[in-house]
Amino acid sequence: MSVSTQDSPAWQHEGDWRTLFLTSFLIWLTPTLVGVTAKAWFLAKHGFASVAGSLSLHSLSVGQRLSFFRADLAFGVFLLPLCFLGVRALLPIRWYSRTVVAVTLMALVVQLLAFGEFVVLGNLAGYELLAEGFDWGLAHPLAALEYLVAFDFIKPLVIVGGTAAALLSIWPLVRQRRQALKKQIYAVSAALWIVCAAPAIASWLPWMRPTVFHSAMISLTVQSLFGSELGSESSAERYDGYSIGTLRPIYQQLANAASPGWPRPHWGAAKGYDVVLFVMETGPAHILSWDANLNDFPNLQRLRQNAWVGTQHYTTSPESFRAITSMLLSMYPVRHSRSFVERRRTPPGLIQSLHATGYETGVYLPNVHGTRHAKDEEDYYKTLGPDRVSIPDTSPVPRANAPGWQEAQDLDVLALRNLEGAYRAAASTGTRFLGVFAPQLSHEPWVDVTTGEHDMAKRRYNLMKVEDRELGELITTVERAGRLNKTLLVVTCDHGLRSSESDSSFRAGQIDDLTFHVPFLLYAPGIVKQQTNLSWMTSHLDITPSILDLLGISEGREFEAGTAIWNESLKDRTTFFWAAQYFGANGYHSRDSFSMWNPMINVTYRNHTLHFTAADAVPLDSLAHGDIIDRIQTMGALGSAWYNLAISAPAAPPGTSAPIQPK
To answer: Considering the entire predicted model, what is its pTM?
Structure first.
């Protein structure tokens, strides 16, 4: 065939534009099937019953269920083949072929990526979170491999890779016999098109109120890669430009958050104390019972004798960056960690308040210099204004015959030793000290630090015993410096679990007690004389206000959203949980119930526990449905304005700040 013939439009040299149409359909069939399968899996597992409940329908007919796929089928069966025809009319065959292959491969990758997000997160998370996870995987390759195995990613990767390899291996044979096989290929294409065209047409017949899942899967996936969190756009800028003095009364009314007033209990009772936050990775509260004897955790057992214990303590986010931000700033986290590069000043919070009163401040992380994840993490924590962000300069020396998890623990210990060295140096000069330590050994998936333990809850329990030993080393260092009776020590977890691999009752795409309920204690020697359990809900928001009240520090606290943990008014506060960027859902606790909204399927839930099933769905036409959405959207807009103001407002001139003043 001559070059000029190859470059002519397909229907001139092929003789039949229908063959090109059918070939285009056949090429695009794989991305179509992947997208339809991903959506069907998600809706069957999470959505059909919920959507039926949200639409005040008892059930969905087969036709109504089929209507969810109308856009996918119309796109793959009719629209894309026609578009490919138009491309072929404009481009020579060689460029047409390259374009079709490139578009198809990109679509396939995007659809597979979406399927993976549905399986792990129950949500389409977007490129920022995916990039963060990719960076973390490069920094922790062994842990990343364990993730792939734990979430059964290896199996589909092998299937997809094997299929691709098989197709590539038989392509030379197909190419050589293309003319002989042409009739069979066209016949198969025509048969498949007829099979797909019938449901594509039928899917438009039943009535169904449109939902977001009536859009094509490829459209949802592309939007998620570059869009913002679903459900946040309509009210995101509602409070932009407001002052903190205007925002605070709105927040107090929305959250029923009472002003602490004066006199404040325990104000200044720990004046001059050092402060250390020991923040463990991925630890749901059900693994550790504060009512147990804790014989396996001698250091926790020792601390709780002089501590407030939060039996109903909750994180604000399933992401470490966001959760720790809430601890240190006493604000709800509303943006991704990388947005801190947009700041114009260091936000006020625990680090800044203690730095202003002469404390040496540091954050100690068990990563190694040289990876992008470690650099991003270091840059992020620097924006909070500590004197140092300490990361080990080199990896620990590998031990002969050591188990694979040993390197992660050795990194934790290196970071801990850096904190201890800084603490001893500060103590030797009489300088007060704030340290934040975030060990990573217990990051999901939970490794077995014993031999042959398969039960995930027992694995986490054993990991906590290892972390208890590290806590004991820290206590010994402080005690040898003669400062243990003058140190406030917070022990908690950044968040709970985030996968069904760790607990089969976990449901992706929702907020859940397994994710948000975490252990917490605040050791306050000389102030708390015995274990003091707090029966009301406390939050990571409340850590900074509690510490600063104990230290008697009032400056720089105008942006606090939390309350000291011993304040009984917390019984009546509405506490919010933010997981839209991770799991696609947000929620809150108010008085005796928990509520959640998943904007992707526009379903709200209400239950007396932080665990939801289809039976807990709130009817779409009820007042409760609208109230849940309004509360979450209003708090989202308020929190966004609050946070943006804190990181972007110019620092107040001396003497013009609004400190908390004792009366």
So the answer is: 0.81
